[in-house]
Amino acid sequence: MFDEKLSEFVVNITSHDNNPYQLWFFINDSLIILGNIIAIFVAFLFVITIIRLDHPTYSISNLIACNTSLAIGLTSSIMLINACYALKSDFRGYGHYDSFCVLRGTLLNICYIYMYMSLCLKAFNRLRCIIYNANPIIKSYGCLFVLLLLKLLVAILVSLFLVLTDGIDYDWNSYLCLVTDAKTYHFIFTLSVYYISILFITSVYLYILYYVLHLPLLERYRRKRQLAVLRRILILLIMLIIPGVVTFFITIWWMIFGTIPLYSLRIRTLFDAIGYTGSIITIFISHTKLRQQYYTKKKININQIVLKKFPFDKCELIVTQTPPPSPNTRGYL
To answer: Is the pTM of this model over 0.70?
Structure first.
């Protein structure tokens, strides 16, 4: 029985005459599944670690970071389920519309919109911490709660609009339920969600970069520290732009020819998985507490002790003395 199924699968992946299935479909869906599994693991590891380290008090920045990681993890989970269904159709050699297809498409749109709004909130929080850190209103937990509630409400309302107006269809080329180019207004609407989000995130981070580069020389240490943060932010921005590579190509092609290339939505899903996986990995390694938790600490020998401190206007003069050698005297970076 197994040999018969294996032979049938080999015939499917090598036949191009009567069957539209090709080997790269299987490779494409397998890479999507692998990327989503990595993203889910990293996202929930991030959330669990922050809960363990910050309990019982949680900062607003960590809560926003956890919210973003959870949004990426949930989006990757729905994409993983969809990819498994697509892979099942790959083995069959033909598409199969099931009763839960529209439900999966709806959940994916809710998570998709919520994820990009979470990334916008994360960018706004970075703006708050660096530039508007003295404003008591935007630093409050009440403001955070209102923004989170607003994000969830907008994601649900937008998805309900797509469902009630029958905007989610089964695409027989990608074996997925999503918004296709057959529904013109819905297709434009979903593309605008991505472009508006990326425009907002890019504008915020460029403004932060401009602000940091124009800090006074007396704040050189702070400036150096923020530039290190911005390097990681730019990597995150590149990861978020990756899904837009195929999206931009699809948009231009659709505007010129009135349709999109065959199987382009399947390729876009792969780029989405790559971008979201890279984004959550970047968020994970950019967090100071997580780096201290999971990265190996380097041992160094302590060869000086502080005797006196003399305060000055902007700094301290520290007088040190080398202690006697001891094999047990060690510190950590």
So the answer is: yes
CA distance 95 to 304: 71
Q: Are 250 and 260 in contact (CB under 8 A)?
A: yes
Tens digits of residue pLDDT in 250-268: 888 888 887 777 777 788 8
> What is the spatial distance between Cα 218 and Cα 94, in angstroms, rounded to a whole number?
66
Architecture of the domain defined by 2-300: Up-down Bundle (1.20)
* pLDDT over 80 (residue 19): no
All CATH 1.20.1070.10 domain ranges of the chain, comma separated, are 2-300
